Amino acid sequence: MSPGRFRDRRSGCRHGNERDLRPGGRSARVQASVHKAVRELLAEMNRAEVTIPLIAASAGVTPSTIYRRWGDLQELLADVAVERLRPDMQPVDAGSGKADLQAWAEQYAEEMSSGPGREMIRDVLAAQAGANACKCCEYTRQQIVVIAERAKARGEALPDVDRIMDEVVAPIMYRILFGDVPDAARVRDLVSRVMTTTD
């Protein structure tokens, strides 16, 4: 149940079977050292005190290397955040499509509404370019695709991936950004509603 390859008309994001191209060789080493420096500095001091010269010194590169690659501090912070938001495992197999979606959505809401989660979201959204926000969206879609393909293999019906994004993920993210933290009961209600027409 892969969503196919298309460009979102509203955001300009490309979705589907594309895989993020990661830099290799020296470029990869520079990215890794700069990302590590950012994470360590953010853990040691107030984020308002973190500067590109400090990051460069900690990473062992010149400030011009960072400016040339990321443009400014906010784009760098967004790049670090989106890497930290990349899922490091597949959604848990809870035995059914609905149970899988519910378990994933509850974990997603909990992680994104945490202090670090909110900071990473703010960093991604504060960047001028929308590429990192598109990556975050695609990470989420890929997780839901795994759940959908697993359900299909079991012979279960599951709503369209875009519908789950609109009716489960979007309300969770809206609450995190502008309202109260969505609790487990609220998340379960969202999942139950989106599953209503497929039960």
How would you sum up this structure in a few lines?
By secondary structure, the protein is an all-alpha fold. 66% of the residues lie in helices and 2% in strands.
Question: Distance between termini?
Answer: 18 Å
In what order do the strands lie side by side in the largest sheet? 1-2
Give the low-pLDDT segments.
Answer: 1-11, 16-21
User: Gyration radius, to the nearest Å?
Assistant: 19 Å
Note the overall shape.
elongated
Q: What can be said about the biggest beta sheet?
A: 2 strands, antiparallel
- Whole-number average pLDDT? 86
Summarize the amount of helix as a percent range.
55-70%
- Beta-strand fraction estimate: under 5%
Structural class: mainly alpha
Explain how this protein is built.
The structure is a single chain. The protein is 66% helix and 2% strand. It has a two-stranded antiparallel sheet with strand order 1-2. By secondary structure, it is mainly α. Strand 1 and strand 2 (14-15) form a beta hairpin. It contains nine helices and two strands. It has helices spanning 25-44, 52-59, 63-70, 73-85, 97-113, 115-126, 131-153, 161-178, 184-195, and strands at residues 6-7, 14-15.
What does the secondary structure layout of this molecule look like, with pairings?
Blueprint: E1 6-7, E2 14-15, H1 25-44, H2 52-59, H3 63-70, H4 73-85, H5 97-113, H6 115-126, H7 131-153, H8 161-178, H9 184-195
Antiparallel strand pairs: 1-2
Helix pairs in contact: 1-2, 2-3, 4-6, 4-7, 5-8, 5-9, 7-8, 8-9
